[in-house]
Every structure is written in C-alpha cells, then in structure tokens.
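Sequence of N-acetylglucosaminylphosphatidylinositol deacetylase (Erpornis zantholeuca).
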Amino acid sequence: SGNYYNQGEIRKKELEQSCWVLGIPASDVTVIDHRDLPDDPAVEWDTQLLATLVLEHIKAKSINLVVTFDAGGVSGHANHVSLHAAVRYSVCTLLWVPPRGCHVLVLESVNLFRKYISFLDVLISCLLPRDALFILTEEETEQAKRAMRCHRSQLLWFRQLYLLFSRYLVVNSLRLL
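Predicted 3D structure, token representation.
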C-alpha cells in the first residue's frame, strides 16, 4: 500500500487519482496490503508469496498483458526487483502458462546517462534490439507527467528531476519474458 512513511492511505488515494488521469477506473485498481510485503526499499519480498498473489490477480481480472520491471528494477528498488523475480518465477519456474493471449513484457533498465536524456534516448532506443518500443506523443508525455504529479507525497527533489529529464516519460523499451 506504499506505507513506508506511514502514508499508506494517502498513497492509495494518490494512486487512484493518478490512474484516473490515465483513464483507468478505480474499479480496476487493486492495492495489495499484505503484512509480509512491506513497502521498504531495503526489503526483498518473498518470491513465492508474491508470485501467487500476482497469478491470482491475473486470473481474477482476465489480464492479457503484464508489464513488469527487469532484474534491475529500473531504479534498483528492492520491491521492484522482487516483483520481477516473482513474475519470472511464475512464468519460468512454476511453468505457468499465461491465459491465451496474455503476454509478459519486461521494462528495460538503462544506465544513468540514458535514463536522464529524455527524448534524445529515442534515437538510441531505435537502434538497439528489443521486442517492443513505446514512444509517447507529446500529449501522452504530458498526461504521464500529470499522473506522476498526483503522487504528491513522493515528489521529492530527485523525482522532480525525473519529471523533467526521464526517458521513461518519452520512450520505453521492453522484452518478452
């Protein structure tokens, strides 16, 4: 629930507001508040527990596309890395066969230089191998920024820089898992 600084309720509301900006109805937002999955950048979550919860959610919502972090978690956040490990475990170790038409894409982590060169990374991303490349229009980029700004409790100075310079608000390269 994002309760690292005892702001779980605030962050839930910010998430719903952010999803609304993106056109995602509140009924499609699921917040997992599990005592064994604390919001803590230093805690690695239990892979099997998280894999079970993710699979249950995919089946319950008939999800046809899962987008997750790669092994680097984009920012190195332990919870993001754990989510990748759980999805990978679900697909590779449990031999989970996604429902017909369900695909799993992994968001590629890039080095610090590429991460903060904004739209200039489009040129580099187009030249490198990947399974999918999403390039946002100017309107979509502004919508993404409005959605990020809904997370007021998390808008620390470095996230303000992220809003200005991050390539992830313009271009995202992904690989099939």
